[in-house]
Every structure is written in structure tokens, then in C-alpha cells.
Amino acid sequence: xxxxxxxxxxxxxxxxxxxxxxxxxxxxxxxxxxxxxxxxxxxxxxxxxxxxxxxxxxxxxxxxxxxxxxxxx
Amino acid sequence: xxxxxxxxxxxxxxxxxxxxxxxxxxxxxxxxxxxxxxxxxxxxxxxxxxxxxxxxxxxxxxxxxxxxxxxxxxxxxxxxxxxxxxxxxxxxxxxxxxxxxxxxxxxxxxxxxxxxxxxxxxxxxxxxxxxxxxxxxxxxxxxxxxxxxxxxxxx
Lengths: 73, 155
Known about the structure:
- The complex is a heterodimer of chains A (73) and B (155).
- Chain A is mainly α and 73 residues long.
- Chain A has a domain at 25-73.
- Chain A is built from three helices and two strands; from the N terminus they run βαβαα.
- The longest helix of chain A has 12 residues, at 27-38.
- Chain A is elongated and about 45 Å long.
- Chain A starts with a strand and ends in a 13-residue tail after the last helix.
- Chain B is α+β, with helices and mostly antiparallel strands and 155 residues long.
- Chain B has two domains: 9-72, Arc Repressor Mutant, subunit A, CATH 1.10.10; 78-150, Bactericidal permeability-increasing protein, domain 1, CATH 3.15.10.
- Helix content of chain B is 33%, strand content 25%.
- Chain B has helices at residues 9-27, 33-40, 44-56, 96-106, and strands spanning 61-62, 69-72, 75-76, 82-86, 89-93, 110-115, 122-128, 131-134, 138-141.
- In chain B, strands 5-4-6-7-8 form a five-stranded antiparallel beta sheet, with helices on one face. A three-stranded antiparallel beta sheet of chain B has the order 1-2-3.
- In chain B, a hairpin with a 2-residue loop joins strand 4 and strand 5.
- In chain B, helix 1 (9-27) packs across helix 3.
- The longest helix of chain B has 19 residues, at 9-27.
- The N and C termini of chain B lie far apart (39 Å).
- At the A-B interface, strand 1, helix 1, strand 2 and helix 2 of A face helix 1, helix 4, strand 7 and strand 9 of B.
């Protein structure tokens, strides 16, 4: 996932690569997602998030809908 | 080691994980299997097997061709466009999510520099006392969540 100057830059990047537009987050949402995902990663007792925990994190950050669905393609 | 020719891969993978992430957090450098083996006084081939297991479990990512550790996420083993400075040390992320993940994993303040994915203009974010205090730009995920691990280098 990349950071862009603005929505217009995302449009231009997607068009140039003939890719469908994905989903956008504010940097604040990105921080909350990264914090929830990585805050324990260097701890000895770290364990991978379960599917349910990951879904809860996405929802907590406001990332809902088909794009964020982890269960089926 | 359980005997001369075998070892407890699960236990070694845990030991390697703990060492690898501590080292990356403390120094900004992601150690590779030969260094890890030397530090832990373990046979290199056993460490390589442990690293492969950690990659299979998606704890870290191997470089596509040579089997070296590309990233012990959020820490990238090689310099990238996503630069993070924390505690006077430089770290690298493979993407903006991981760049933000570095201060989260460290529990430290950080300044993140990342290029606009389109024009390359440098953008800056700052984490202070557990909050994002300065930011600019918009984060874009090109690939739906269910397919992130199809090609983790492109999400």
C-alpha cells in the first residue's frame, strides 16, 4: 500500500497502470491499523492475529464492506 | 537439539523470531540466517529451516530468488522509499502500512518519510506519544484484503 499526495494522484497512478481504483484510508486510519497490527510484534509472546481479531481491527478502524472482507474472494 | 541430526524446529523458529525482531528493533538492521546462526550458536541449516517456517507462517517475507529475509515486517531488510527515523536510528518499511507499523512496534516517536506513489514527491508523517501528530496525503490499497498474500509485494 502506498501513500499519495491526493486523490487526484491515486486516479492518475491507477489510470497509468490500467488498474481499478482500490480503497483509500486517511493517514490516521493507517496509523490505527498499523498500531493494532504491529504493536506486539517484537514481543516474545507475540502471536498471529486470528481472523476474528483482524476483522475486529478493520471494523474498529472503519474499514468495512466487500473490499475489506477476509473470508472469501 | 533433540539429537545430533535433528532439532525441534518449532522451538528454534520461536527463538529465531524473538532474536530477529529484537535485533531489528534495537538496531534497524534485519539480520540474515548466517548472523542469526552465529548469534544463537545454532547450525545455519537449522536456522534456514526455521526462517522458512516463519515465512510459511507469514511472520516474515523472503526475497523471491535467494531466500534471504526481505522483511521481518514491519522492518524491511533493505533500504526502501519508506524511511522511518526513531530514537536517532533509521528503519525501512516495505510500504506505508509497515512504515507506520515501525513506531507502533517500537513504542517510540518517529518521523516517516514516504514518496507520493504517483509523482514521488516526499511526504512526511510524525508519530508522537502514541498518536499521529502530523500527516499528509491519502493511503491507497490497490488489492482487496482477501488477496493481500497472493503477492505481498503488491498490495
